[in-house]
Amino acid sequence: MSKNNHTEVIYGLYNDEEDLLRAVKLAKKDHLEIYDVYTPFPVHGLDPILGLEESRLHQAGFIYGALGTLTAFLGMSWVFTKDWPNIFGGKPYWSVPAFIPITFELTVLFAAVGMTVTFYVINGLGPGVVNNHLDDRITDDKFCIAFDKSAVNSDKAEAFFSTTGAEEVNSKTI
Amino acid sequence: MSAVVSPIRKPLITGNKTYHQITEDLISPTEKTPTKEWVIGFVLSVAVLTYGVFCILWTIWVGIGSWNLNRTINWSWDITNFVWWIGIGHAGTLISAILLLFRQKWRTGVNRAAEAMTIFAVMCAGLFPLIHMGRIWLAMFIMPYPNTRGPLWPNFNSPLLWDVFAISTYLTVSLLFWYTGLVPDFATVRDRAKGLRRKIYNTLSFGWTGSAKHWQRWESLSLVLAGLSTPLVLSVHTIVSFDFATSVIPGWHTTIFPPYFVAGAIFSGFAMVLTLMIITRKLLHLEDYITVEHIESMNKVILLTGTIVGVAYLTELFIAWYSGYVYEQFAFFNRALGPYWWSYFGMMFCNVISPQFFWKKSWRRNITLTFFLSILVNIGMWFERFVIIATTLARDYLPSSWSLYSPSWVEIGIYIGTFGLFFTCFLIFVRVAPVVAVAEIKSILKSAGDQYVGDNATHKHHHHDADHGSSHTDHH
User: Fold this and answer.
1) What is the domain-level CATH number for residue B434?
2) How many domains does chain B have?
3) Is A61 an interface residue toward B (CB < 8 Å)?
4) Strand A168-173 and strand A8-14: pairing?
5) Interface of B with A in 204-243 (CB under 8 A)
6) pLDDT by residue (tens digit) across B281-322?
7) Residues of B (123-142) whose Cβ lies below 8 Å from A
8) Using CA atoms, how far apart are residues B319 and B334, in angstroms rounded to an integer?
9) CB A83 to CB B151 under 8 A?
10) Would B82 be classed as within a structural domain?
11) Fewer CB within 10 A of the end CB, N or C, for chain B?
12) Inter-chain Cβ pairs, chain A and chain B, closer than 8 A
């Protein structure tokens, strides 16, 4: 995550997610504050060790969905009882069962679009965004732990990386 | 670390792959110059698409009179093709969403391509109702917005308008789901590229970094989108079937339509996925990722849905007879033995009889047979829609209005043109994006790679013992 534009980090690259998980556990035990962890795919079991709280994205999704339900149902109700009351096939103006399909579709539409947009906005991702990433191999086969140099000094970090079996240790400003 | 894997599970990734090898295998097709087969396919698809565009323009210029519809048969090839393409789109969402909820790991090999197929198929489908309007420049009238025409609103009680909402929602949600899955893989392509290509893929990858928090949200988003897409995909074909089921035409107004249409849609969709993936895996050398296990699993779905469709056909016949309602009875008598008897028997043979071959395991795993049957199923499902639509309309209540129908060159051209659109899009997709989901394949490697599971596994117990302590934190 690019929390600000100039963070000096020291990072180690691991070859396997098992090594990464063991290293993250050790870092937590030694009270080394991890800046971020980067992986080529979602590593299961990482979030609880890293202490990440569960994402609240699905709660946002629920709110967007509810908004869609209300928009569709109240919208159609208003159109057919107030703005443009019409009789179709002898049915009442306010023919609720006929509103169900569109209400459902708009619920799904609002929830999906709202959540996806929220996902990109809170992650700081989007078309044209350039994030300085640490190493090109992180999207291939390397698993990376990064420390902020202002929080963890370089000697300590290097010692940590060598005991946990990091294959490579580098520094970079991101 | 990997979840407990049953010893009877067969590997889904063969060839003793490493993470890096997976990247190599799946990304390199986008980096090489196109093969001769691809160029020939692309030129051919664009040519067919061009002819289709010409026929569409002809329809718009001359009018719907250039089609062979008449007052009795006012829906025919157009709506047949619409329903057929929408049905084909259903497998993508089924594979990516429903199988994700059911934790079926074999979906990972085919989900990306199947989702792409969904999007292209829905685009082809959407064309037909639009041009069938006749005055396509008034197409925005179907969207509800405050206007100076009255105010005049679309009829929210009409299944045709439900369709507008269902299909546009389906297209949007499928697109979001597909693209969100592609973002990390575009980042992988970016990180291997240089110069302008790197810039383009950086834009496509939205600046993805692979941060743990991003992955967590990405998984949360994928899961909820899957949860939303599951009822959505069922609702789309249900609503398509309402176009018929809410009418008063014998042979159409049956309550069996929604489940019967959904099963048929999944059936035809899987057939199309098989047709395409059998060719793609061969041409892009993806046999290690789309294995015979994948093909067998899809054939099981074809067998199941084909049999459901078969039961639905027989139920329709039984209910028509049992209802004692002469118009209904005549509708089915006419379908089977009327002037279009050949399409009814084509449908019965391709949809009900042909999938029954898949009861035999060795035939389910036979790629040549699967390819041949998958094409038969697609033909059969086209016949099904033609039987329901044109055959039924040809013989209505009033014998003096009975009519016959055969398509004009314009209608045939538009239908062929949609294949051009579909394959042009698919071939572009194959060039610019990894056809198999790279990050997702990596995430199942340790539970589905042939070095970890199956008869030739070399790492069988290693990972389990090494990290026993953390298995309870596993997210499965």
Assistant:
1) 1.20.1630.10
2) 1
3) yes
4) antiparallel
5) 204, 206-221, 223-225, 228-229, 231-232, 235, 239, 242
6) 888 888 889 988 899 999 999 999 999 999 999 999 999 999
7) none
8) 15
9) yes
10) yes
11) C
12) 212
